[in-house]
Amino acid sequence: MTREAPLVYLVAGEPSGDLLGARLMAALTERSGGRARFAGIGGENMAEQGLTSLVPIEELAVMGLVEVLPRLPNILRRLAQTIEDIEARRPDVVVTIDSWGFTGQIAKRLKARGSTVPRLHYVAPMVWAWKAGRAKKLAKRLDLLMTLLPNEPPYFEAHGLRTVHVGHPVIESGAERGDGAAFRARHDIDALAPLLVVLPGSRRGETSRLLPVFAQTVGLLASRFPGLRVVVPTVETVATEVTSAVAGWSAPTLVVRGRVEKYDAFAAADAALAASGTVALELALAALPNVVGYRVAPATAMIMRRLLKIKRVNLVNILLDRYAVPEFLQDDCRPDRLAEALATLFDDPAARAAQRADLALAMRRLGVGGESPSRRAADIVLATIAKGPSCDSCTP
C-alpha cells in the first residue's frame, strides 16, 4: 500500500539533469499538494527544491568514452552506494534522469536484484544519433520512459517499452524573460558596450579542453571590438576552474552563477559562444545569436566518428535539419574560425536577424506555448506511484 507521503527517489548525474530534476520536483510538490518527499542524487538546483544529495553530483559529471576510465573505480563505488540507499529507503518510485551510462546501471542492478519499485527514466538516450541498440537495453531495464523530443517514442516502443513524450522543459525555463538592462546596470556595463556570453560547459572535461580555445577567441575579438565585455555563466561542478581560468582573459570578464544571472546575461548580450548541449535550447528561447565550439578527447572523437549517424550536434540544427547555428567541432574548433563567426554576428544586423528567426522556428517545433512538460512528467510519476509496484505501463 502506498504511503500517504510518497517517496520519490531521483538520480541526476550531471547539471543538465539536475535542472530537469529540480523542475520535476517542483511540479511533483505542486501536483501532490506538498506531500511528495524526495531522496537521491542531484546538484544545486535540486537542493533548492529540498533534496539532500547522497553523493556530490560533480563526481558523476563525466563525459566521453576515454575520460570516464580514470574515474571508473569511484563511479562504481558510488553506484553500489546508490543501490544500497535505494534498497534501504524503499521508495515508491525511482526516477533516473539522463546520464544513461550511470543511471542505466542503476536500473539494471535493481532489476537483477528483483526490486519491485517502478523504474522510470526521464530523457531518452539519443538512439536516433548513435547506439541504436540501447533502445532494447532500456526496454529490458525500465517500466516507463519519458522523452523530451516528439520523434523519440517509436524507437523504444518497437521494443515493447511504454514511452511517453512529455516535452522539453527548456520551454518553461524562463530563458526568454531575462532583464538585460538590469544586468548591465548591476554589473556596471555600458549600454553600448559589445557583450559576449561564453558558456564553456558544465563538466571538467569540457571546460579543460574549451577554455583555452575560448580564451584565444576572446583575445581576437577584443582586438577587433574595443570595449568588449565578457560574461561567463557557470555551475558548481566547474565554478572554481572556470573562475581561475578567465582571470587572465584579454577582455574584462565576469563570472556569474544561478539562472537569474544567466538569463539576464542572455538578454544583455549581443552574441554567445557555447559548448554543445542543452544550453543551445536556452539560447534559442532567449533569441540570443550564438556560435558553437566543441572538442572531445581525440580517442573519443575517433570512436564517435564511426558511431554517429548524424552530421550536426547542436539541438537547434538537429530540429531544423540544417546549419542555422554555426558549429565548429574538433579540429575546426579554432580561435580564428570562432572569432570570425562571432564577429559576423556582432557586425551584421541581417545575420543576427536571420539566426533569431531560425531560433524562433526551432522553439515552435519544440512546443513553445504548449502544456508544461514538468507537470506532464509529474503526473506520470504520481500515476505510477498510485498503481503500485506491479505497474507495467503507467500513464495518467
Instruction: Please name the CATH topology of the largest domain.
Output: Rossmann fold
* CATH domain class of the largest domain: Alpha Beta
Task: Note the total helix count.
Answer: 16
Structural domain tally: 2
Main structural class: alpha/beta
Ranges where pLDDT stays below 50 over 5 or more residues in a row are 63-67, 390-396
Number of strands: 12
Widest sheet: strand ordering: 2-1-3-4-5-6
**How large a portion of the residues is in β-strands, by DSSP E?**
5-15%
CATH superfamily of the largest domain: Glycogen Phosphorylase B
Radius of gyration computed on alpha carbons:
21 Å
Shape: globular
Cα distance, first to last residue?
Answer: 19 Å
Helix content: 40-55%
User: Average pLDDT value?
Assistant: 90
The largest β sheet comes out as: 6 strands, parallel
Q: How does CATH name the architecture of the largest domain?
A: 3-Layer(aba) Sandwich
Note the run of SSEs as H and E: EHEHHEHEHEHEHEHEHEHEHEHHEHHH
Summarize the structure.
This protein is 46% helix and 14% strand. It has helices at residues 15-31, 44-48, 72-89, 100-112, 134-141, 153-157, 180-186, 204-224, 239-246, 259-268, 279-285, 298-307, 315-320, 335-347, 349-366, 373-387, and strands at 7-12, 37-41, 93-97, 119-122, 144-147, 163-165, 195-199, 229-234, 253-257, 271-274, 290-294, 327-329.
